[in-house]
Amino acid sequence: MSLPPCPVQKYESWKKIQAKYRLTPRELLAAIYICQGNKYGWIAEKMNITKNTLKHYKRTLRIKTRTPTDVAMLNCFIDHLTRDDLWH
Prior knowledge:
Elements: H1 8-21, H2 25-35, H3 40-47, H4 51-65, H5 70-82
Helix pairs in contact: 2-4, 4-5
């Protein structure tokens, strides 16, 4: 699976997020696209899935990150991506 373009350090951070939360490659891809601010219709088309499947991925991501809302999930990922000391 190829990930969308992102700085190398962010790619490494995403791989750490994937390992920490045990995300599948498709869940990881959905998380990246969502955090980039892409519209759900565009994400579904890009991933060749239905919007309902994307909704399922979002629900699974919230469960795995133990976050109650989409905003909390986004904040969780953004926090991981912006805190250098998280992985030390």
